[in-house]
Amino acid sequence: MGHLNRFQFVLLFCVLFLGIVLTSCRPAALDEADVEESNMSDTAVSPVESPPASTAPTAVPTSLAATPLAQETAADLPPIVGIGVLGGSNSDEYRGDDNRGGEYADTTLGWVEQLVKSRHLNFGEWGAWGEPRRTGFAYNWARSGATTREMIETGQHTGLAQQIAAGEVSHALLFIGTNDFSVLNGSYTAVYDGTLDDAQLQAKIDQMTADITTAVDTLLAAGDVKMGIVLVADSGSLPEVQAYFPDPSKRQRVTGAVNEVNAHISELASERGILVIDIDQIYAGLIAGMDSDGNLDFDGEKITLFSRGDEPHHGQLGDQTGHLGTVLSGYLANVLFVEPFNKAYSLNIQPLTNEEILHNAGIR
């Protein structure tokens, strides 16, 4: 298997985990990008259905080698009551109000939806909950476009805390911060070009860390919950970002701010015994399965990572932001939640197999 050059390597990271598509780094896109996620349909569709019966129980390795379909028995079910999520569009349901996927909508699923469909994990009842939550699973409070401040202002943390206190949720993931340093919404630019002076930048960092601390402590105070937090990603090393933000000292100003937030997250997690999930490590695992053209040989199916479209052989969707397609969302379900939570909290959730992910995507 070939190796990616440096440009492809960091660009793929941009595509997969920062929500930045190839076109979004061009000046026109930077000027015109709509920060808020527009609803692609006024009516949310039905939640995902269960997959067909499966065969041998085999986990997906990090190398993405072909594996047979897995089957869980009652004895294998993990000790999970319910799973809650705080965050943004990385976790917001694709089959909710955003209705991603165009003509492939029925098989365009995010990581949460695939764990419900293929592992019957409990993210709560599907329903229409009204603003600011909209439509989705009851324990998934993630909302497209949310920043850390908006997470607090809209009550993601207090809503989930109530469910923890009621004994409905036993595990939770906090995946927030991308939109606080986003190229698309101008927040990266404001730090880079000094629109935020030093005092204002420190206030931003302090506000982010205070909001994350508030969210974590609110959940922990509500009851017995096992948590994971995803570190905030930094786009400053990406070649196309560097092309339009060429001053290394100014990029370092953004990187320093992100690093300070992440240092707080790591310290917070260590003090409270919380799992930390590093996006860089997730990305490194994905690289092992790619060829020199940036394609994944996913159980015999070529998944392209350097162009976008709703057809499921694309790694990213054809929407405004270029969210992960179903195949890579299935991969994310494994490396973001299943594998780290299994290891940290002695769970026994079987990772999604390649065959199941391809079935979810409508490829097989």
Structure explained in plain terms:
With 364 residues, the protein is α/β, with parallel strands linked by helices. The protein has one domain: Rossmann fold. It is 39% helix and 11% strand. The strands form 3 sheets. Strands 1-4-5-6 form a 4-stranded parallel beta sheet, with helices on both faces. It has a 3-stranded mixed beta sheet with strand order 7-8-9. It has a two-stranded antiparallel sheet with strand order 2-3. Helix 11 (326-345) packs across helix 12 (354-360).
Report the helical percentage. Answer: 25-40%
Q: Span between N and C termini? A: 24 Å
The count of DSSP E runs of length 2 or more, i.e. the number of strands, is 9
**Shape annotation:** globular
Assign the CATH class.
Answer: Alpha Beta
What is the fold's blueprint, element by element?
Blueprint: H1 6-17, H2 27-32, E1 83-87, H3 111-119, E2 126-128, E3 135-137, H4 148-153, H5 156-165, E4 171-175, H6 187-192, H7 198-222, E5 226-230, H8 239-244, H9 248-272, E6 275-277, H10 279-287, E7 295-298, E8 301-308, E9 314-316, H11 326-345, H12 354-360
Parallel strand pairs: 1-4, 4-5, 5-6, 8-9
Antiparallel strand pairs: 2-3, 7-8
Helix pairs in contact: 1-10, 3-11, 5-7, 7-9, 11-12
Short structural description:
Helices cover 39% and strands 11% of the residues. By secondary structure, the chain is α/β, with parallel strands linked by helices. The protein has one domain (6-27, 68-360): SGNH hydrolase (Rossmann fold, 3-Layer(aba) Sandwich).
